[in-house]
Amino acid sequence: MANPIFNNSPVFQDPVQRKGQKSPASTVSYGTAGAQVADAATLDQMYAAPAATTRETGRLTYDDVIMKTAGLLAVLVVTGAATWVLAPGLWIFGAIVGLVLGLVNAFKKEPSPPLILLYAAAQGVFLGGISQFYESFYNGIVGQAVLATLSVFAVSLFLFKSGKVRVTPKFQRTLLIAMVGYLVFSLINLGLMLFGVGGGEYGPLRSGWIGVAVGLIAVVLAAAMLIVDFDSIKRGVEAGVPAKLAWTAAFGLVVTLVWLYLELLRIFAILRGD
Hints:
- By secondary structure, the protein is mostly helical.
- It has one domain.
- The chain is built from nine helices and no strands.
- It comes from Cellulomonas xylanilytica.
């Protein structure tokens, strides 16, 4: 299973053999004796010309993804800091708008940079307000959650780059089953919390040591999702997909990172609670 955002774009999926596709050599014309029709001067120019880079051909590069991801995170951090200082109560507004924009962007076939930037801004409002709330109860907890998020991201990237964890069909199926189970579990917990069954600050199934255990499982799932995200980006770069899809890749990474941060924030809050 890939991140739904990547999975919605066929270019990031596993390559499929295309029938009837002509090879570049098939477009070259040949004379009656089988010799290629081209003069010596043309051939000299072709061999002397420098090879075009992926950027010059308008194809996706890792630099594109890095720059777009950094830009989205910068927007998120700036709006988050502003919300923290000026209006932390707007976090619920940011949560709703972020959810709507997240769904819209996830199901769009073509990336929309303005909508993706607005999503990052809305998530900044949400995270800025909710982080200020947690920080007011547990001093230093936001710094801990940010550091832990960066650490999990770095470990996931290392495991992927080193080849110690490979995104195989079995890996994806296992992740799919685990994600569906986590989603069902979360919906049940939310329902119990709304109806006041079992108590607990985060619902009966997400409080105390049970909450910590479930949170750690969620962190592992988020880390696995990051690895799948990296694999999807790698396939996109190798396939030479259009550079504009760097926005899709950056959006997918930010969605996973936001989820990871919230899970870690909740774990630290439970551990530091009474």
